[in-house]
Design brief:
This protein is mostly helical. The chain is about 85% helix and about 0% strand. The protein contains 16 helices and no strands. α11 runs parallel beside α15. The longest helix is centred in the N-terminal third of the chain and has 58 residues. It is globular, with a radius of gyration of 23 Å.
Length: about 500
């Protein structure tokens, strides 16, 4: 019971902090879009795609490994064994983080000129390389705090880090001419890397204080094969992550090329890519922080249940999580579909962004529930299956982008995203069904969809009737009305089952 309350508390805490950070990030993204333009957003997304690949190498599976090993030691009643796990994970993180930083720094020039095809990306890549060792070591500490249930420490660091990044970046951009993409990219990456240093320093202080709970030195009687256990988890995850991230980066780099081949100019290709990746998808994924919090925090709970052989508990927890995830994701999708056009106009003054928000709303239940499904699978030791599916997802995405964008343009790119998200989810949910034996009542699915459709329709009608001259207030009132109506319908209908 205490663990259940702890899970609920940490989920609420992580969700609240994520919502706060995402809300601030969305406002920040709106301001950036007006400051550097859609093409600038597109170029920065390309820079981030390369940095994401380098960060994958820096982390090399160590965050999940840290969470898993510490959870196993605590679940088996060996608290000091957590110290052994942390020591090895930190050494592993330092090795891969430094290697990734050096590789990106010295390859920034050929990457910028030959791979990205834009000289403006070279300096930002060099700046980002400095933060990669910190990313790796921070991942170990974040994994540790997740396993021990003290998520609030990670939350404090992440909020402070984001606020610091925004302040530093805004200070740099203050002296930057509007539309100067090169200087803007330098400012954005400098702000991000500076925040990495400050966040890491604060994280070290909290981590050093907290680690005394499980000993500052390795156990007097070291757990057998701790290094091998770590490598057996981390290295397969790392190899699979490399493949997935590499294919994902390739996909993102192929998008502007494919769009240019479809007849768009280089500027229009970057702008179209920027609208989808930098404007529409952040809005669609904004509420997903709830799912991400659940997916991360459920790992240690399911791991402990698995170690204890509590199969009935696993089945019940999985079914309950998936039903709640379905209710949340279907309601979110319905509201985004009903009000997405207004969101695009109010946030970005872009009807095109609003249209994309509505299109991607159709696959929100798939995307959101897939996050929770992956978290459950990882908690049950199925991390390699998740990685293989993600590799297949990324590989098929890159192939489809290469084949379809030259003749289909942006419409083809949207189709690729929708298809691969659905493909990934089907494979994962089938696997989880086989492993856990969960069951979702068909009637609850029908009731959820019907309730969401009614509530969203009412919210749209309300928004259309009061929106003239009252855009933002009307949208807020309509969203709150739709949310309230949906919660009421769900409560009344599902309570009668």
């Amino acid at each position: 019971m205490k663990r259940d309350k702890n899970l609920a508390y940490n989920t609420a805490l992580l969700t609240a902090s994520s919502l706060t950070m995402r809300f601030a990030g969305m406002i920040w993204q709106v301001w950036l879009a007006g400051r550097i333009g859609e093409a600038g957003i597109g170029l920065f997304q390309l820079i981030l795609s390369v940095n994401s690949l380098a960060a994958t190498f820096a982390i090399s599976g160590i965050r999940y490994t840290s969470t898993r090993l510490v959870s196993e030691e605590l679940g088996a009643g060996r608290p000091r064994g957590a110290g052994d796990a942390l020591t090895r994970c930190l050494l592993y993180g330092a090795l891969f983080g430094l290697s990734a930083g050096l590789i990106l720094f010295f390859s920034a020039e050929p990457l910028g000129f030959l791979w990205l095809g834009d000289a403006r990306t070279v300096q930002p890549l060099m700046i980002l390389s400095l933060g990669l060792p910190l990313t790796a070591l921070s991942s170990v500490m974040f994994g540790y705090f997740t396993a021990t249930g003290r998520v609030w420490k990670s939350v404090c660091i992440q909020i402070g880090q984001q606020l610091f990044m925004m302040a530093v970046t805004a200070a740099f951009l203050h002296g930057c001419a509007v539309g100067d993409i090169e200087t803007a990219s330098f400012s954005l990456t400098t702000g991000g890397t500076s925040a990495d240093f400050v966040g890491f320093a604060a994280l070290c202080i909290l981590f050093r204080h907290d680690r005394r709970h499980y000993g500052n030195t390795p156990s007097a009687s070291p757990e057998p094969n701790m290094t091998n256990r770590m490598l057996n988890i981390a290295l397969p995850l790392a190899g699979a992550a490399y493949a997935r991230s590499g294919l994902s980066t390739l996909q993102h780099l192929l998008v502007p090329v494919g769009l240019r081949s479809s007849g768009l100019t280089a500027q229009d290709a970057l702008a179209g890519y920027g609208i989808i990746q930098g404007l529409a998808l952040p809005v669609v994924l904004f509420p997903s922080c709830v799912m991400l919090a659940v997916a991360e925090l459920i790992v240690p709970k399911l791991t402990r249940s698995q170690v204890a052989g509590a199969n009935e508990d696993i089945r019940a927890v999985t079914a309950d999580l998936l039903q709640k995830s379905m209710i949340f994701s279907v309601g979110t999708a319905a509201l985004l579909l009903a009000l997405g056009d207004s969101l695009g106009l109010i946030l970005y003054d872009s009807a095109e962004a609003g249209l994309y928000i509505q299109i991607f709303a159709l696959i929100v239940p798939v995307m959101y529930m897939d996050m929770v499904t992956d978290g459950c699978l990882k908690g049950l030791g199925q991390m390699m299956f998740c990685m293989y599916v993600n590799i297949l997802d990324a590989g098929s995405s890159a192939l489809l982008v290469w084949l379809t964008l030259p003749w289909g343009g942006l419409a083809a790119y949207i189709g690729v995203i929708c298809f691969t998200e659905a493909f990934n989810f089907v494979l994962s949910i089938v696997r989880l069904k086989k492993i856990s034996g969960f069951r979702l009542p068909p009637l609850s699915v029908i009731v959820t969809i019907a309730s969401a459709a009614l509530a969203a329709s009412a919210a749209r009608l309300l928004n259309m009737s009061i929106s003239a001259g009252n855009g933002v207030p009307a949208l807020i009132v309509s969203m709150l009305f739709g949310l309230g109506a949906y919660c009421l319908l769900i409560r009344l209908c599902l309570k009668r089952q």
